[in-house]
Design brief:
single chain; alpha/beta; 2 domains; four-stranded mixed beta sheet; about 10% strand
Amino acid sequence: MKSLFILNLKKLLKNKEIVFWALLFPIILSTIFHIVFDGIRNRDNFETLKVNYVSTNFTAEDKAFLVEEMLTNKAEYIKNEGTDKAQTVKIFALSEKTKAEAEKEFKKDKTIYFYKEDGAFKIKASSQNISTAILQTFIDDYQNFIKVTTLLVAESNGTLSFQDAMNKHVASYAYTYDFDSGDKKIDYVNNYHYTVLAMAIIYGAFLATEQAKIFQPNSFAFAKRVTVSGASRTKLLVSALLSSLVVQTAIIALYIAILVFIFKVTFANIGLALLAALIGVILVNINGFFIGIVFNKLSQNAVIAIIILAGTIGGFLSGMMISSMKFFVGTKMPLLSYININALISDSFVSLDFGNMTRYWNNMLAMTVIGVILFGVTLIKFNRESNK
């Protein structure tokens, strides 16, 4: 096993083209983004967001906690105004309106508003952008807060009222709604780097498909030699997969270090960001072996085209070229966001920035499910080939 692993490792590292796509190409893209957007990072133009709300159907808790406590009192932004200059501003300027008034202002100057219908909060906006994303984050946090409070009431067996449970939860709930700009907590330029990082992880499929060639003796001479040697196919699979994982993990770790220390990209929670990257690496390697083993009749050019298209189109839908595309897809085609590996990886980093842990863990779950399915299908095809 050890000798097979070392053999696969050496073979992989000798392939200069794969190293280029897996590491150097993402660094080139990040360098371009850094040059273009560095001035934006050091000075931002954030202005308080004008938002109307229709309180019809709001409960007393909706008004007291969501509107007054969260959106009015706690939602603040530390605006970076240049060298060592910062100003704390309110994220939202809220105004209560009737539905007719809110709709009139929306048609006149596109002022977004939110309301409650059939027990659910809804946001009316002309397009999905960073403003609606921020507002949706606060609403999601509030709804999670209500769920926890309701659970406390149920667990108390009637000894706690809803208000008492809410007060108890508030006392233990560490909520801080400060969105920092520049090189602090929230940096909207980071989204571009996140999508490139996700694309770099996806291009790791080149490593996996390269290693999967060892199971194609009819197409590659070295695979035929290995087959004739009588080496265990199971050991070959494990050693090939491990060598691919080790090399890509090292490449992504190096790339993340470059993002953090050279390009000054900040992650809200570096530990969970690394976890997302690791799960992404594992998923992409499984995907590479899935392509190489299940679709082993494809030409090498076809495999390369599939991986490049997956990375490029996935990056586009994740907002790498047009930032608003990410929000459009998330709202209009949410299912696509959960099967787009690039979106799952990059959105995990964005979710951490906005403190949306529910979305982060949903992304982790989606990647895990996809990985299990692809690995299962790959093993089925692998076992069939082994039994021939």
